[in-house]
Amino acid sequence: MNDCKGYTLIEVLVALVCLSIMTAALFPAFVWFMNESADVKRVKVAQFLLEDAYHEYLSIHELRTETIVGETVYQFNLKESELGAVQLCIHWVNRKGQAYETCRLAKL
User: Fold this and answer.
1) TM segments (predicted)?
2) Mean pLDDT, consecutive 10-residue segments, the chain of 108 residues?
3) Taking the model in full, what pTM does it have?
4) At the N or C end, where does the chain have fewer CB atoms within 10 A?
């Protein structure tokens, strides 16, 4: 009976403790990575919306005020520039409360 080959309860508990410690150490990095990935997605959505608003403005000379995608509100504004050009800008705030802005110059 002493010749059993297998894991003892202590060995299993030690393995579970090691696995728990590694999981606890890696979880914050995983959460950070997911938040950064969501921010990159918001930037790509903003670039797409700005490009769409740019073409819409060139064709009908009207600009929408805001667009909501998921939980993010994207706001558009128009700034007059020198030499008859206008600057289309899009603003949004990420989940951490940081404000972002991307602009594009439109020549009429």
Assistant:
1) 12-34
2) 73 92 92 88 92 88 86 89 82 88 83
3) 0.70
4) N
